[in-house]
Amino acid sequence: MDASIEVHGLSRTFHTTVRRPGFTGAVRSLVNPERVAKHAVTDITFDVAPGELLALLGPNGAGKSTTIKMLTGILTPTSGHARVAGVVPYEERERNARNIGAVFGQRTQLWWDLPVRESFAILRDIYEVPKAEHAARLKEFDDLLDLSSFWDTRVRHLSLGQRVRSDLAAALLHDPPVVFLDEPTIGMDVVVKEQVREFLRHQVTERGRTVLLTTHDMTEVERLAERVVLVNHGRLVLDGTLDEIRRKFGSTWQVRATLADAHTEVAPLPGIALLQRTGPQVVFGPDGPDAPTVHQALKAVIEHHEVTDIALDEADLEDVMRAAYVHVEEV
Amino acid sequence: MAVLHAWRAARVTPLGELHTPPRMTAVLLRLTVQIVLVASLWHGLYADTGTTAGLDRDQAVTYAVLAVLASRMRELDQYAGRDTVLQHMHFGTIVYWYLRPLPPQRYHALRALGEKLYGFAWALAGYTVCLTAGVVEPPKSAATAGVFVLSLLLGQLVLYYVLLVLDQMCFWTVRNNAAMLILIFAQNLLSGVYAPLWFFPGWFVTLSAFLPFQATLNVPLSLYIGRIPLSDAGLQLAVQAAWVVALHLFTRFLWRRAALRVMSQGG
């Protein structure tokens, strides 16, 4: 099956003027400006399959938003190419616009002075969505996002959570097969976040939409994404499943067990090290680069030892990503 | 064509205003006070004079009051609606203009059309009241009225393009407040909102002939009151049309260049 999003060797360089410090520096910058090239994105390649939700992660300034802006057609790459739902976005901006929906953080596309429903109606006309189809989709979104409780309110009077839910609906009202979400839940409370996640899950699993999500919220990644692309300094440093990333960077698990016999010998297990032993209490941890996942380790410990109690300590995804970012910086 | 289906974008300003009655009350009050003061001022100025700068008292009062009414088609509170290019650049929401199957220039034009029509409704209501109350004179003939309407339409197009250039400046400068203040002052002065251009010195009138501002208001109002005779209307309309074409081509060029600037400024 063809990928919904194809990115090959995508690069973008910005040229900016260096502002020198101090008054003299400012005058020199004015008279003799020094231009420098900033490589925001360098040679990024990845694909996203139809109906897949991919999390594009990376620290601030890593190049995530620039990548999304190239894929939405706002920005033309310096080199490389991209295709979204079969369209080169920066060459056919208007055609691409019909295939995509986008939400950029807290930046709303709704009309400030109008009730939410009026904004939806304007977008319906812009995207030429038939009225019956529009009404049906609005009903579906209302069921999931509870829009009708505030859609007659003017946008300027909405809470952040209400506005983001409205923006999500606005981005999907024309039924785009591909959706770009740039930190959509930033600043929202946990209840609304969960509602939005449920909505996104529904759009992926039930509607088969392809979603490219950037976020710093690792709970969101954990609950929504199976695959992650990690970028840093504009370069792709990792493309894999969450399990692969955990295996590579999240090797901080511990299995704590209480042995039935306090004097029994602890047999060596492949990739698992005995970290500590106090009588019947033993603590295992990963050993080497081929260490098993925490669940495999748990299974191995139970299979090879008679235990009366067992517990897991696993680094959460945030720890894993922190380790990944630090590793990437060091590389 | 998406632009035909997107007509609702033209409703944004009128709907926003209708949802905010205090704004409409403020407009009504301001317009009333302005018209009363302007009419009183020009009546006072003509108290001891018959004809000045080629205008008699009724012509001058009509010109000045119509200028106030026409300014309603420009001075809408777009900032309150958070839908100016300046604000979209500031908040980074300009990207959405480039994510829709409706080109930004058509969206901008549709929004402006709605604003102009809404402002025109105010101006027309004010004109009807002033005409009934005898504050302004009716046009001298049906031909004058027709030429005035055509000239007013061309003048509004020129004004739209002049304001569009300012909006487009935001793609390069992020802020256009200073330029906007200068332009509003220049437009008021050089188009005849403050006072009919006929009262200014010859060099000033000559200078303003080389600028687009007099085409926005002075020409249609002068045609209405008969200060520009109908026999000269053809030339004046041609000059207005030339400004429309020149500014249209210039702003089209700027839209193309602006598309390359979306990211670096507020994207």
From TrEMBL, chain A:
InterPro entries hit by this protein: AAA+_ATPase, ABC_transporter-like_ATP-bd, ABC_transporter_ATP-binding, P-loop_NTPase
UniProt topology in membrane: Peripheral membrane protein
Keywords: Antibiotic resistance, ATP-binding, Nucleotide-binding, Transport
Annotated localization: Cell membrane
Domain of life: Bacteria
Stretches assigned to the ABC transporter domain: 18-258
Gene3D superfamilies the record matches: P-loop containing nucleotide triphosphate hydrolases (3.40.50.300)
Gene Ontology terms, MF aspect: ATP binding
Main location: membrane
Stored PANTHER family: ABC TRANSPORTER ATP-BINDING PROTEIN, ABC-TRANSPORT PROTEIN, ATP-BINDING COMPONENT
Protein name per UniProt: ATP-binding cassette domain-containing protein
Species this chain originates from: Streptomyces justiciae
